[in-house]
User: Fold this.
Amino acid sequence: MIEGNIIRKTSLETPNSRSAIVLSTNCNGVLIKDNQILLSNNKYGISVTSTCLNIQSFNNNAQGIEGAISIPPNSGFDGLVINNNISGTRYRMFITEDGKPEFTEWR
Assistant:
């Protein structure tokens, strides 16, 4: 778990070349939550590579030149996990590019 960090004024060397929090090289099952990544010249505040699996980002205040958070769909998502108390089914909820909530079954 990567939780509760306050990161300011990072990537001073070359703007838009690095990200503040990076997961790569086959990370699996990591939760990234409650972090603040502010006033930065980062490419992304949080970046996850396509070699990672089961990554969840939640409640982060991130900034980056290319975008706040970059997680490939096959690696994870930025959103919530919600449980159906009757069936026990777990769902992930995230916001689509057009601003609408979407729910899909989650392992």
Notes: The chain has a mean pLDDT of 93. The two ends are 18 Å apart (CA to CA). The chain is about 0% helix and 45% strand.
